[in-house]
Amino acid sequence: MEALEHEVHTPRAPEQNQPQVAIDVDECAARRSLRAQIARLEYELADAFVTAFQMGGVELPVAAPGEPRLLDLGELECVRDELAERLRSARRSISERAELQAENRLRLERLLLEPGRYRFVRISRRDVGEPGCGVWQVRPRLGLIGMMMGWWQVKLSSGCPLPGGRDRLVATRSASSLA
Amino acid sequence: MEEEVELRAAPGFVEPSVRVELPGLRLDWRSVEGGRRKSPREISRRLKDLSNRYRGASVVALRAQPIPHAYRAFFHQIGLDPDVTRIPIEQAAVGRLMQGQFRSTNLVDDALLIGLIETGVPIWALDADLVDAGGLGIRASVAGDRLGSTEFGHHLAPGRLVVADSQRVHALLFGDVAPGHGVGPRTARIVLFAVGVEGVPAIHLEEALWICAEVLGTG
Q1: Preferred mutation among A34, A58, A69 to probe B, highest tally of B CBs within 10 A
Q2: What top-level class would CATH report for the domain B10-216?
Q3: Which of A133, B154, B163, B176 has the largest count of CB atoms under 10 Å?
Q4: pLDDT digits (tens, 9 = 90+) for B199-215
Q5: A142, A143, A135, A175: which is closest to A159 by C-alpha?
Q6: What is the pLDDT of residues B46-77, one digit of tens each?
Q7: Residue A150 lies in a domain
Q8: Are both A91 and A146 inside the same structural domain?
Q9: Least Cα separation, residue B20 to chain A (angstroms)
Q10: Which of B61, B69, B160 sits opposite A43 (nearest CB)?
């Protein structure tokens, strides 16, 4: 009888502890999985950041700096969700800007074919996703005469503006001529 | 004949509860002779050469490279936003763009910067007199922990990840060194430590410490 009671009672202790252990193990695995998701999202966000940079960049978060700590499940979920939202927003912004650039490229082609139909229209290199500061502009050939005669042409301005602006260049030239 | 720098970094401890949560987190440290003094001309020249590696485009693309990516992901995992609190290599790269070059400050800071630029692994320096002989490691702070050993060190909230020895907390993980624990004019021996995370090979930590010790040896 004693032996029977012993057999019945001893397994109860581990059974009582089992759910708690299972929750701990599950939470640990869930946290690991969330950390892996965060790392993957960060990688995709970095790619999106690099792609979007030439198109004007993506918005960066404005937040107070935190302190390093072990995050619990809820906090890790918040980080994951925030990264996912940032990624979605960055991709949406990239796709909108890519569509706009495609439209501008098409417009530029039309402008080059028929400048007379797009008088004084300006399209910058940045508008079509190209680096640099050049601008295509439809202008009349020979100024007023061209305007009256309907002689229109597309001109591409050269290079980026000087750091100090035109005034500085003029000042430097006049100083050197005086010397 | 030049004296060869000994390649021997000691692995620091990582508290078991932290290791379970953040596998791959590690700290390597070593001590070297040296103190704060002006950098020789060759170190300034080396920093100038390294400046040429960083242009605007390469700094933008930095976050897509494996080692900066590993640190950025880790920052998110420990509650830091790398776009707010920059990872060390990005901080250095942005500093180079803002100042036009990597500027030489003193031999210790230059050595830490060169090690960081060459490997992407951040390194910090402590006054060896304040570090316990048992070595450094990473743990979570507990109630009553104070940053540093002076009265200027503020109390830390429990659960913060810190770099500590058996006696005192020397720094917040990836944060500034506690006041008075850095290398000062009277420091004769320096403890260098590097922190690695998942995705950063251990050999990079060793290399970072080795480069740093080599630069300190030239002074």
Answers
A1: A69
A2: alpha beta
A3: B163
A4: 999 999 999 999 999 99
A5: A135
A6: 999 999 888 888 888 999 999 999 999 999 99
A7: yes
A8: no
A9: 9
A10: B69
